[in-house]
Amino acid sequence: MKNKSIFDNKIVKIVLPLVLAFSLWLYVVTVVSPGSEEIVEDVPVSISSERILWQRGLMIKSGSKQTVNVRLEGNRADLNKLDKSDIIVEMDLSSIYEAGSKHPTCNVRVPGNITAQILGESLEIFVVERQEKQMPVTVKFAGNTPDNYVRGKVTLDRDTLTVVGPKSLVNTVAEVAVTVDLNGHKEDIEQTLPIALLDRQGMPGA
Q1: CB within 8 Å of 57: residues ≥ 6 apart
Q2: Any idea of the CA torsion for 118, 120, 121, 126, to the nearest 10 degrees?
Q3: CA dihedral sign, ordered 49, 50, 54, 60
Q4: Which end of the chain, N or C, is more open, meaning fewer C-beta atoms within 10 Å of its C-beta?
Q5: What is the pLDDT of residues 153-162, one digit of tens each?
Q6: Which has the closest alpha carbon to 133: 98, 99, 160?
Q7: How many helices (H) and strands (E) in the chain?
Q8: Rounded Cα gap, residues 81 and 87, in angstroms
Q9: CB neighbours of 138 closer than 8 A, spacing ≥ 6?
Q10: What sections of 59-193 are H helices per DSSP?
Q11: How far apart are CA 199 and CA 33, in angstroms?
C-alpha cells in the first residue's frame, strides 16, 4: 500500500493556511500594532532657559522640580524600545518678563515615529526678582586661646563673597561671617569653614 503524504490530507490543507494567517495577524497586533498607546507617569521636567530669567533680573523661587504624565502613540515595536529617559520635557521660560505666578509652556520630545502629549493641567512656577550683592567676609571667634598663647593674624582665601538670591531675602543679609573655634589650639589653624548669612540682629537669615 502506498504511503500518503500529510499534504494529501484535505483537512491539513485547509487548516494550515488558517494557522499561517492567524500567526501573521498575531504578529501585527502584538509586535507592530500601529495604533498603540501608552501613558508614562512622572516624567521629570527640565528647564533649559533659566539663564533668560537671570538676564531679566528674575529667578524661579519654587516649582522648578516637577513631573508630568505623557501619553505616547505609535506602533508597539517602537514603544517597546522606548525608555523613560528618552522622553524629554522642557519648560520654556522665554515668555516671562516679570515676577509672579506663571504657567509656562512645556515642550515634549521623543525619538522615532512616536507622537507625545503632556496630560493634565499646566505647571505652575513662582518667579521673583533676583538680587546680587558683593559683601566682605567677617571672621568671628569662639572659645579662648590657651594660656601663654595669643591669637595671630587671620588670612582668608576670599575676602568678599557675592550673595545671590531672591531680592526679598538678599536684602535681609547684613553680614557674611565665618567662625573660628580657638579652643585647644596651640598651633596654626587651617580650616574650611561654613559661611553664615546674618541679619541685622546677627541672627542667621537667608
Answers
A1: 129, 130
A2: -70
A3: positive
A4: N
A5: 778 888 899 9
A6: 160
A7: 4, 11
A8: 12
A9: 175, 176, 177, 178
A10: 76-81, 167-170
A11: 64
- Amino acid identity of residue 75, one-letter, is N
The stretches of 102-205 forming alpha helices (DSSP H) are 167-170
Q: How far apart are CA 64 and CA 123, in angstroms?
A: 10
| Residues of the chain scoring pLDDT < 50 | 6-7, 10-12
Whole-model pTM over 0.85: no
Nearest to 94, CA basis, from 43, 135, 145, 55: 55
- Quick: pLDDT tens for 114-138: 999 999 888 999 999 999 999 999 9
Grid cell of 78 as nine digits: 517602537
Q: Give the number of other Cβ atoms within 10 Å of residue 176's Cβ.
A: 18
